């Protein structure tokens, strides 16, 4: 009997199972790097797998908007049918990687159109401006868009604001000479505000925000008890309010726990060990069973062809001993298997327990830092985007309590549903930063 192994992890993301099909590696080699995309018409229900198809890693249809780079290829024999698989990694997020049947991939044409930045590009009409906007990534102004002559921005301010979801959200006196001084009214917020300021200033390459005082400031950040509408942070003209109830709840940010790369590596290694253990155990069981069957059939044949009762009795004894020995070895292999599975399951628990304190702390720090970065983004003139990885993400273009703004298009779901939320690392994306730079050029800060 073939074993099936499952090592359960509390995140639900790592389950090792034995594929039902017989899978053998014919060859595996490095290959020339190529760029591919997922073919949505063919890969709607398909997955990327671990090397021998033992574990599903991610659903391909969730990544049809990504570019993947190839690193290896392998020929697998699956139930005596051959298939070629490529090992691919996302060009922008290396953790999204796995083995994909090449029939689900479409090679990108090296001669395909790509956007080229032109500093000081001429804009003679609205249609010409829109051609530059359309050449850039969605909601992310390119160097071309950020490098027009000054008169372009004054002439097309309204159009550019709508194309990049920008607006005037800060009161007129918040920014003086492109700079805002922040008074932190509650000391519990100090570390989060300082980190948020540092990350915006570093990303923009200038001192846009600094810490002020109660008597010398243009923007206030404080805790607020007005939490009946369920927000975490709220920007209002010259004040950023942070929800007191949620902020003081020690478990609130921890509900958004994420695993670190180190933990992911540990879990992957454990999963690989589990897969190897399963393969080895099934190989041993199959060899033992085949050897037993061959010897049993040989003895049974001798028994049937013998006319001597003493010989038959001796053969029966040999069959009995053979069966007993088979049962003993079969039981030993399975007991060893179960013992090693228990050790792997304990290793999973230990990995989580070791990581938990740092996960909780990092989650809390990153979560509230991101909330404040998000509200400072509103101060800079940034409305929401439908990209989960952006600090300025919102689940809907008409999110409750959000300040209305003209938007490029309406949305009710994320455009990158499989990407991590920004609060995982509290990191600004290029889209966040480029939009902020454009907002500065348009005079919103």
Features:
disordered N terminus; protease; zinc; 445 residues; metal-binding; elongated; 8 helices; alpha+beta; 16% strand; 5-stranded mixed sheet
Describe the 3D structure.
It comes from Lentilactobacillus farraginis DSM 18382 = JCM 14108. With 445 residues, the chain is of the alpha+beta class. Helices cover 38% and strands 16% of the residues. Among the domains are: 85 residues, SH3 type barrels (Roll); 48 residues, no CATH class. It is built from 8 helices and 13 strands. The protein is elongated, with a radius of gyration of 31 Å.
Task: Please specify the SSE layout and strand pairing.
Blueprint: E1 23-30, E2 35-38, E3 47-49, E4 56-59, E5 68-78, E6 81-90, E7 97-101, E8 105-107, H1 126-135, H2 150-155, H3 157-163, E9 180-184, H4 190-204, E10 209-211, E11 219-224, E12 233-236, E13 239-243, H5 244-248, H6 261-305, H7 309-379, H8 430-441
Parallel strand pairs: 9-10, 9-11, 11-13
Antiparallel strand pairs: 1-5, 2-5, 2-8, 3-4, 5-6, 6-7, 12-13
């Amino acid at each position: 009997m073939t074993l099936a192994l499952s090592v359960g992890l509390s995140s639900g993301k790592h389950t090792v199972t034995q594929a039902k099909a017989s899978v053998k590696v014919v060859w595996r080699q490095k290959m020339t790097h190529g760029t591919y995309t997922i073919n949505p018409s063919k890969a709607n229900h398909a997955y990327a797998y671990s090397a021998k198809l033992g574990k599903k890693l991610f659903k391909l249809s969730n990544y049809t908007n990504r570019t993947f780079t190839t690193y290896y290829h392998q020929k697998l024999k699956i139930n005596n049918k051959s298939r070629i698989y490529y090992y691919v990694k996302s060009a922008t997020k290396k953790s999204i990687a796995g083995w994909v049947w090449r029939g689900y991939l479409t090679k990108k044409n090296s001669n395909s159109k790509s956007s080229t930045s032109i500093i000081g590009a001429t804009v003679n009409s609205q249609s010409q401006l829109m051609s530059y906007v359309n050449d850039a990534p969605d909601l992310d102004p390119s160097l071309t868009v950020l490098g027009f002559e000054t008169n372009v921005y004054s002439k097309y301010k309204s159009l550019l604001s709508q194309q990049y979801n920008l607006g005037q959200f800060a009161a007129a006196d918040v920014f003086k000479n492109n700079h805002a001084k922040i008074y932190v009214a509650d000391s519990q917020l100090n570390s989060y505000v300082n980190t948020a300021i540092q990350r915006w200033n570093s990303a923009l390459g200038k001192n846009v925000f600094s810490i002020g005082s109660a008597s010398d400031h243009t923007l206030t950040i404080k805790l607020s008890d007005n939490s009946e509408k369920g927000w975490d942070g709220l920007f209002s003209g010259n004040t950023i309010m942070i929800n007191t109830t949620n902020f003081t709840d020690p478990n609130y940010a921890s509900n958004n726990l994420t695993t670190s790369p180190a933990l992911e590596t540990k879990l992957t290694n454990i999963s690989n060990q589990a897969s190897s253990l399963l393969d080895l155990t099934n190989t041993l069981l199959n060899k033992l069973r085949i050897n037993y069957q061959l010897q049993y059939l040989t003895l049974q044949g001798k028994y049937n062809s013998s006319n001597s009762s003493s010989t038959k009795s001796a053969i029966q004894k040999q069959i009995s001993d053979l069966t007993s020995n088979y049962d003993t070895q079969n039981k030993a292999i399975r007991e060893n298997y179960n013992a090693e599975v228990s050790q792997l399951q304990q290793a999973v628990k230990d990995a989580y327990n070791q990581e938990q304190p740092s996960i909780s702390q990092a989650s809390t720090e990153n979560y509230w830092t991101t909330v404040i970065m998000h509200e400072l983004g509103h101060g800079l003139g940034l409305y929401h985007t439908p990209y989960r990885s952006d600090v300025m993400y919102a689940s809907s273009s008409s999110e409750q309590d959000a300040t209305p703004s003209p938007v490029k298009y309406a949305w009710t779901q994320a455009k990158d549903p499989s990407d991590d939320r920004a609060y995982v690392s509290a990191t600004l994306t290029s889209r966040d930063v480029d939009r902020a730079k454009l907002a500065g050029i348009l005079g919103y800060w």
